[in-house]
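Appendix B, Record 12. Input sequence as logged:
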Amino acid sequence: MFSKFTSILQHAVEALAPSLPLQEDFVYHWKAITHYYIETSDDKAPVTDTNIPSHLEQMLDILIQEENERESGETGPCMEYLLHHKILETLYTLGKADCPPGMKQQVLGFYTKLLGRIRQPLLPHINVHRPVQKLIRLCGEVLAAPTENEEIQFLCIVCSKLKQDPYLVSFFLENKVKVSAARGLAAEGLLGNAEDMKSASSPDTGQAQASVGPGLESASEGQSSQQADRAAFSLNQLAIPSQAEASANHPSHNYNLVNSLLNLTKSPDGRIVVKACEGLMLLVSLPEPAAAKCLTENTALCDLLTERLTVFYRALPQSMDPLDIETVESVNWGLDAYNLKEDATAFPGKRALISFLSWLDYCDQLIKEAQKTAALQLARSVRERFFVSVMEPQLMQTSEIGILTSTALLNRIIRQVTSETLLQETIYFILGEKREPETLADINRHPLRHRLIEHCDHLSDEISIMTLRMFEHLLQKPNEHIIYNLVLRNIEERNYAEYKPPCAEDKDVVENGQIPGAVDLEEDPLFTDMSPDNRLSSPDWLSVSPPQTPDHVKSDGKTEVHKIVNSFLCLVPDEAKSSYHVEGTGYDTYLRDAHRQFRDYCAICMRWDWPGVPRPFEKCNLDASFFEGHFLKVLFDRMGRILDQVNNYMNHSLL
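Logged structural output:
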């Protein structure tokens, strides 16, 4: 109560007293802080019962006022005093000792406000980035500490400064401290602290010591040395560990900023975790190659991503409705607030599923924003430590319920991933990296790919439909390796065609561009729609639908297509024509949708710089036997049994 009254009285006196020059006022407030440690004998009282917070706030206000009164980029005498006398270094020492109790919180707040409110770049100064680096090591040491909020604010302001000037990250990539030099550094640090107190206690105004009057110099030196000795003794009583002890207690890391943020991601406070994740996202986006390499090789960031994915995935129920997995609302990371009582559509495992999808979204966005080499390493880590180690055994199991659930989750992952690098590693996990043509002997070279393709024709219709849906979403992704691995690598050699080398007698080859003995599809009544005007070489082949003109006399083949489809539908009993029960689900709607998908995918393929014409037959390996590939074979086999399925349905209906 008395200390609060003293603080109020001090503010009143300062308000009524004539204003001093900024530098003298700044030095006055700093001396008031140092005199507290020299004169006080009670180090148990909390810092809020002292005038230290008020003096720190006044010092910060003076620095901001000084910067506003000067031209941009010009350093004033108050800032020079702060840098020259290593005030930040001394504050770090006091904050580390946390004496009086709560001092660490005050120091973190001062650092945060100083870096955030001062516009001129401070981190390049050695007397700024060195204590900042030391203070970073103190953050995240204790989970659920009372200073967590100030710690994360301080770390995030440092990250934002590095984002503005990425070259500054080199100051935070520390080299290992040599143990042999630790004692010398400790002695130097102790002397430096005492010297700081000595200079702070003397009537310094930011100028050289020669400015002190000759008559007062000896008395001043004697008084200052006594105060310095008392300051050093007081610091020793505070049990502040030396720099050698600090190095022993805190093993040197190459990227302490990342390590502190990683520690804070384990906080029980969700807001702290989100802030720490935001800081990590800022750091991975820095373009410096050395920082990217250090981040992936010398920190636990990869472990954090994969371990969290594993924990959330294993928390999911063993059996889940695929419809629930597919239709659960999309959740952006950090915004997965969920109230079970207010959720009327809750199902078992929804909370766990949202947590998994939320962290997956964070991994996806982190890799999307990361520097290229860092993104590649992070994505490979997710593939090796999560997809291969955790998901693959679930997809390869024999339990139909487990297969259905894991395939539905894989389908949801494919739909949600937007990062090109993570998508590429996901594709390699599912399909493998092979690009040479398939053969019947090696279709099971990649066991997971073989198993998933086999599931497209599984005895369980639910598994088949879910796997087909997964491949459908996979094929819609803008990635060249998908379509090449599943289809194109097997038809690139064109050994599906029956080719006869041209002879000297075949003079009509050059005239019409046809291969001798080839069947002209225009003469086949089933392909009358493939007139020269309707070929894919037409510039309008990417349009939504063929142009319709009332005076178009030539038949475009639509009538024949209708006849063919109607003839097939005559074989299907009315009870099996499910499309007739819902308006707009007939075969014509399907054809329009297929044409739209084909047009969209052709637009995607244009970015891959594929050749516009097929490889000449002379350069193809036509001796090899044709194999359409495992994927197309399973699809064609399934299509070939459509009439058998209709026949079985008719027999079932008759019975």
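Residues 214-237 form the longest helix (24 residues).
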